[in-house]
Amino acid sequence: MSVVSLRGVTKRYGDTRAVDDVSFDLHENRIHGLLGRNGAGKSTAMRMLTGQEVPTSGQVRVFGENPYENADVLSRVCFIKESQRYPDIFVARHALEAAAMVFPNWDQDFADRLVEEFRLPLKSRVRKLSRGQLSSVGVIIGLAARAPVTLFDEPYLGLDAVARQAFYDHLIADYAEHPRTIVLSTHLIDEVADIIEHVTVIDRGRIVMDDSSENLRSQAVTVSGPTKAVEQFSDGHEVLHREDLGGFTRVLVSGVPTGRDTASLQVEPVSLQQLVVRTTQFHDAALAGSGNGNGKGNGKGAWS
């Protein structure tokens, strides 16, 4: 069942379309990946579905209702972002106490355990916390709130690799015991590839991929070998990326050709990271060739 839906949603800032005729669903009790490079439109989409911005056109529904200025809906949605702001007078403990008052499903024992594991100094003023400590505040709130819809807009980027892995481990374990709809918006695809169940990729404000992780992985392969054999194998299929070295070629093919000779070829599965990045680049090239860009830049946004 869909708990969040966007239908034909566009968001303009002046002449720029940050989100361009976007439609997708977030399903109940599933971990979604909202993926794309910096500036792709991910954060804009999340701000609209959490009622922080109003679309220029189109329809946003959360639990079947418009989230904008809707207290009942927003009490069931937890949105954690990297640039989260708190009052200057707050110490870290105040941020957690405020969250406990807002979210009905708040688990204080769980929050206390997370505070200890992430070594969060509860008596330190929020404005004096390091970036990593600020990230800890966000992920603790996002996990302990247990909101029916929980969105993480890259708040964990300030955590080091060990702390990020601890966050992922807690997320998976708590999701197993308390299923809910979770969205991880990130460009660190390799880190979340084994966590997310459904993938939505936004690029230049448009949806370029929207399917289950399992389906996406099964729809592409990497093929390498003698150039002629590779070209024969991939003939009639969409080649998302190609590399040539001497008489050898390596391609990423969308669709899995069947009944073809692979004796001289190496056929390998594609990582989610590779598939998303190469599909996005392919999409960029298609837009550049057609001249149908939407004013969001030259397609060279960073993935890291």
UniProtKB/TrEMBL annotation:
Keywords carried by this UniProt record: ATP-binding, Nucleotide-binding
CDD domains: ABC_DR_subfamily_A (cd03230)
GO molecular function, one term: ATP hydrolysis activity
SUPFAM superfamilies for this protein: P-loop containing nucleoside triphosphate hydrolases
Domain ABC transporter: 4-229
Top-level taxon of the source organism: Bacteria
Coiled-coil region: none
Pfam family, one: ABC_tran
Name recorded for this polypeptide: ABC-2 type transport system ATP-binding protein
Organism: Prauserella sediminis
